[in-house]
Amino acid sequence: MKTVAQQMFRTCNKLFTRKTQNDVLEAHPSNIETAAQMENIQHLPSPSQLPSVEAVRDGVHHVEAVMERAHHGGGWLLSGIICINILILGCALVSGSAFNSVAITAVHRQIFLIVLLLLTILWMLFYIVFTSRKDQAVMFKDSHAGPVWLRAGLVLFGVLSLLMDVFKIANYVGYLHCDSAVKVAFPVVQAVFLIVQTYFLWIHAKDCVQLHTNFTRCGLTLTLSTNLVVWMAAVTEESLHQTEIPDLNVSVSHKLYRASYGYEKCKCSHSACDTFKEAFYYLYPFNIEYSLFASAMAYVMWKNVGRLVEDHSHHNVKFRPKDVCLGPAAGILLVMAGLVTFILYEVDILEEETMKRNDALLIHFITNIVIVSLMSISTIIGCIVYRLDHREHVSEKNPTRSLDVGLLVGASMGQFIISYFTIVAVVATGARGYLNALNLSWAVLTVLQLGLQNYFIIEGLHREPFHVMQEAALHTNAHAFQEHAEMSIVIESNKSSYFLTSSPPKPSFKRRVLKEVCAFLLLANIILWIMPAFGARPQFDHSVEIKFYRFTMWAAIVNIGLPFGIFYRMHSVASLFEVYLIS
Question: For the whole model, what pTM was predicted?
């Protein structure tokens, strides 16, 4: 308790004595109120008159609340306005270039994106070269922001996105003699942007900047909005590439390939154009995920600008795969089975025979029903363990956790929308036939699985790590025993033996079950990400929803909801890995 109180006083001291050029706040009501709250903190009890544990904790939370409010200046409003305007303009241009090839073309969209990418590159270079190297510019680090596994995923997706840009350059070079050079310039600029941004986020994702705060906030919202506009453009192009245009009088449907380089009027000057085009379309899912990862990390950095944090809440958590066995084994088998059925589906769905197409849909529906059913059962087991678990909930404010939960719930809405629209269409048409029954079962089970998984992940992210609870219990017991002087030597020896013998802790039964569930769900979400991300579109291959809602409306529903559903699966993988680490 004495340690907690002393730490609180040191924090207050820093708030009162630190003087930088950005510490002078404008005299508006919110800052006057903050100053008054700071003045009230000075009247905390001295260490000689220590309050109760609850009072100390309330005082610490009060200090953190004041610190959180103190870092907000006028720049956050300006940066938010910049972000909203760029996003709305980008959305309008992307939509216009997708559905109107005369007034607004892909070239206009790419020029706008090139301008955004160049501005973002210039700001990131300014931050790397000037802002981050200033004295007292980055005095604090957010230990929760940008964990190494998240940055490693960003690098992996960035490398694959870079490969996509190389294929695009090689493809569009063949059309330079009859098409705009902007289509070659855009992937070149985007490749430079990927390299600079990946380095920037790898090095500075944890920064809590204290200098140039307004300019940094605007730069970070520019980075955030640029990545989101790039994501919108990639999702739109990928959706148009994958969208099925069915001829309901004929059993065959064909792909809508809307090439942005003039359809058949412009011929490629080398023979490898078709190969490069098919190759970079398969890499689009990685570029889409890269943009979303970068957007999330930029948002957390924006929330941390001017934030004063103490690095006392960071706990080293090591990844030990040997702690689990059944979950990963079952998950790997599920992934392998899913890949096999996905390949069969992709091959057979292109056949002209109705029987083969129906067999492909049958295999795909059954595979997904089995996957979501097993996920629902394992999630229920995990939720039961949570009910038996007595770990406390995390009480500190954490922008990373808040963003994780918001993205998880928000992204799941896309899959919820598609599932509920499917349920309504199938039930309204009578659900006749085995394919309709399977489609309805898949939609209902998906809704159940999404709800259970959201609860499981959110509950896991807000629980204290197991090893933190063990250490707290150890120190509490040691403090109680220290009241007896004759027991002090025994306590020290017990504490030493605890840390020596528990360095490789053996997981308890509850921990083991939670880790098994997390590992299985993680792998199951990977295969549920792979299938739609790489081209599985049963929503267009099965015609019930198209006949019920008409193609235009159903295509809009799927092309809006499915990208969020795909992102939900990848974000669930990241969140489940985090839950696995703290379990």
Answer: 0.75
